[in-house]
Amino acid sequence: MDRLKATDRIVILTGAGISKESGLDTFRDTDGIWAQYDLEDVATPQGFARNPALVLDFYNARRSGLLDPAVQPNAAHAALARLEREWPGEVLLVTQNIDDLHERGGSTNLIHMHGELMKARCLDTGRAIDWREDITTDTPSPMTGRPGRLRPHVVWFGEMPLEMDRIYTALAECSLFLSIGTSGTVYPAAGFVQEASLHGAYAVELNMEPSAGHTLFDEAICGQATKLVPAFVDRLLALAAM
Ligand code: BV8
């Protein structure tokens, strides 16, 4: 990584592990979301068609959890925002997370590839709007006034993640790919490390434990995000200062 130049581009991928220390559940840890719910029932279009009230309640619970004042960005979110501010080259943050902790932590050059919990989408117009309330099967769409035509603006399994062209362009142009707090089990995000490495990027993983794809990285460092990320950002900014 010492060959990195201050003008180089950095792409960062985050997953649920970066929000764990803010009090939000991950998916695949033993106490995670998929231990409480069947993914097929609550995170697929088929599940939504089968039982929209169950899916809407699943996201209503997560939205109100995220709105809890006790849930705040942590030192890892803040460190990534500092990197974006102080690194001379471009820093693009691609998150699989649907929480808004990166924005609240100060990141601005950000892509929510799996959508956003604080947005709802009208099924008839396809338009997404900011949304902080519960959604029920009676909630009228602000776009059409029709009830039962609103869904969470979230990418379910079998649906195309958002802004994939922009992401693949950035992966092809970056010199450093940094993956934080993800198990590396969900595609296409889990394949980003190969895409970046193929184009010559140096790849680093910061995670509580080695991810499914840890051997694809040049460095895989294990530990808590609130400890590892600020230290890694310091390491990068020291390089930029040289
Ligand atoms: C699609 C909804 C294509 C939002 C989610 C190959 C290629 C392409 C697709 C596939 C493929 N193989 C299989 C597929 C299909 C599927 C898939 O990947 N399935 C998996 C299960 C095998 N992929 C899809 O369906 C994707 N769509 O490919 O479309 C297409 C093509 C043509 C036409 C149409 C479509 C869509 C994927 C998005 C699905 N939606 N969620 C929501 O409810 O949140 S994915 C879900 O998993 C979450 O969004 C989350 O983002 C994602 C990944 O989970 P992680 O963030 O990694 O969380 P996890 O709990 O797993 O891990 C946390 C990690 O943190 C752990 O390793 C832990 O150790 C660590 N950790 C914990 N605490 C800390 C910590 N680390 C540091 N510090 C700590 N304190």
Mean pLDDT: 97
The count of β-strands is 9
> How much beta, percentage-wise?
15-25%
Number of helices: 9
Could you estimate the helical fraction of the residues in percent?
25-40%
By secondary-structure content and strand pairing, the structural class works out as alpha/beta
**Which series of helices and strands comes N to C?**
EHHHHHEHEEEEHEHEEH
Shape: elongated
* Spatial ordering of strands, largest sheet: 3-2-1-7-8-9
Bound compounds, each kind once, are:
ligand BV8
List unreliable stretches of 5+ residues. none
Distance N terminus to C terminus? 13 Å
Rg estimate, integer Å:
18 Å
Main sheet properties: 6 strands, parallel
Commentary on this structure:
The structure is a single chain. By secondary structure, this protein is of the alpha/beta class. Helices cover 33% and strands 18% of the residues. The protein is built from 9 helices and 9 strands. It has helices at residues 33-36, 39-42, 45-50, 52-66, 75-86, 101-104, 164-173, 192-198, 225-241; strands spanning 10-14, 91-95, 110-112, 115-122, 128-130, 150-154, 176-180, 202-207, 219-222. It has a 6-stranded parallel β-sheet with strand order 3-2-1-7-8-9, with helices on both faces. A 3-stranded antiparallel β-sheet has the order 5-4-6. Strand 2, helix 6 and strand 3 form a beta-alpha-beta unit. Residues 15-17, 20-21, 26-29, 32, 43, 96-98, 114, 154-161, 181-183, 185-188, 207-209, 211, 224-225 line the site of ligand BV8.
